[in-house]
Design brief:
The protein has one domain. Helices cover about 50% and strands about 10% of the residues. Strands 2-1-3-4 form a four-stranded antiparallel β-sheet, with helices on both faces. A hairpin with a 5-residue loop joins strand 3 and strand 4. By secondary structure, it is of the alpha+beta class.
Length: about 190
Amino acid sequence: MEHTYSAFCGARRIATGPLEEVAVAAKRASEAAKGVLVFDDATGSQIDLDLRGGEQDVRRRYRVPAAIAKEPVPRGRGRPRLGVVSREVTLLPDHWEWLASQPGGASVALRKLVQEARRAGAGRERLRRAQERSYKLMVALAGDRPGFEEASRALFAGDPQALRGRTEGWPPDIREHVLRLADPDYDPSSRSSE
């Protein structure tokens, strides 16, 4: 699935979905009003779109070619069928000794250590990314709204209930999108039908 983008015209969200669809919606809205902002939902960053020409020009400009979307990634050395890629690792001699003494050898031990670390830190990393993307959107769309500072503090304190309360008076589309991006379990690669 493609990851999603969202376009806002003032306080109203006009589209969420693949970049091609959002760009066309932004083109239509920009013809009727000024101030259309587009955000990458994965990062919360505002992006600039080239909306010159007609809708077909915009659609063509932001369409992901099917060949690129389905083309397999070329693989280098290693065990390509398993997705194993050979790279250099630099360790101290006592680290190599410990790895060599592990069942399965150094490669197996390193893979297990990486998996353990990923599992242990996955929740914190997802929360950090969610806070960052939500904050970027908040600054752009709600930086001058009442309660912004308090909402920011609630966001970075990891308190979703306080964030919900501090954004209560904000326009519904901005509030809902800030809360969506602040959710660590939100997947910006899932397609929305808005």
